[in-house]
Amino acid sequence: MNNLSKNLSKNPRGMTLLEVTVVILVLLSLISILFIGARAWKKGSDRAGCIVNIRSAQQMVRGYQNMNALPVGTTINMFTLGNEFDLVNIGTCPGGGDYDHTATIPPVGELAMWCSLATSDRHEPENFAGW
After folding, report:
1. 130 in a domain, yes or no?
2. What secondary structure letter does DSSP report for 88?
3. 110 domain-assigned
């Protein structure tokens, strides 16, 4: 057997520069997809947490209204409703938005509290007609 046939029958070891580059590009693509998905998941969980806070404030106002037999339109201070009805316990928007609230007990179908991100990031319940 001559040297030429020996060299052809050997399996080359290692990867070429082109193969390494392709592997790196594939890995970077997968990592970028992961980050995009994680960011979307975070925005969705922030939105859900904000809606839970808005619903809690709504239930707090309705509970205070029912326990004290107050009519719609009665002036209230949502920060001093009482120990069991304290807007401070609601917290802040997980997405970084600011909460604003009404000064009166709203009619059914209107929110007592809303988020500044309601229009941009949809930090508002889709259906609150029965609230």
Report:
1. no
2. G
3. yes
Amino acid found at 80: T
Higher pLDDT, 79 or 22: 22
Angle at 87 (CA atoms; ends 74, 120), nearest 5 degrees: 95
Give per-residue pLDDT as tens, 24-40. 999 999 999 999 999 99
Tell me which residue range forms the domain holding 29: 15-115
Q: Residue 25 domain-assigned? A: yes
Residue 93: name the closest of 122, 65, 64 by CA: 122
Domain membership flag for residue 100: yes
CA-to-CA dists, residue 4 to 10, 16, 45, angstroms: 10, 22, 64
- For the chain, the domain total comes to 1
- Helix ranges (DSSP H) in the chain: 3-9, 17-67
In this prediction the pTM is: 0.73
Which tokens sit at 108? 């059914």
Q: Give the integer Cα–Cα distance in Å for 61 and 67.
A: 10
